[in-house]
Amino acid sequence: MSKEDTINQLRRHIDRIDTVIITALAERMSLMPEIGEYKKENNVPIFDEPREVEIMKKLKKISKEQGLDESFVEEVFLSIFNESKRIQNDIITG
User: Fold this and answer.
1) What does the DSSP assignment read for 8-71?
2) What is the extent of the structural domain holding 27?
3) pLDDT band at 62 (very low <50, low <70, confident <90, very high)
4) pLDDT of residue 36
5) Cβ atoms 36, 87 nearer than 8 A
């Protein structure tokens, strides 16, 4: 196998993984309207700091077990959390 074949095979594998990541993000975000509606109906604040801290702690533990940099994982999930809160806010504020 040539070097070009090898890099192309690796890139195709990365492309498949990227699709899995996007699909998982879309599934996660698809739950936000329902969560936003629940919070709106039950007067629950969008930001739940203790829950977010607990989730981040768990994610950092998993990232360490998987050999990933904890700061990288934290940055990724802070972006995910922020987008989740933005969607919920849009639902609550109508």
Assistant:
1) HHHHHHHHHHHHHHHHHHHHHHHTHHHHHHHHHHTT--S--HHHHHHHHHHHHHHHHHTT--HH
2) 3-93
3) very high
4) 97
5) yes
Residues 8-54: tens digit of each pLDDT: 999 999 999 999 999 999 999 999 999 999 999 999 999 999 999 99
Please give the Cα distance from 64 to 72 (Å, whole number): 11
- CATH no. for residue 20? 1.20.59.10
Tell me the three-class secondary structure of 59-80, residue by residue. Answer: HHHHHHHCCCCHHHHHHHHHHH
Tokens of 61: 């533990």
Q: Residues 82, 40, 26, CA angle at the centre, nearest 5°?
A: 40
CB-based contact 89:45 (threshold 8 Å): no
Quick one: pLDDT at residue 34? 97
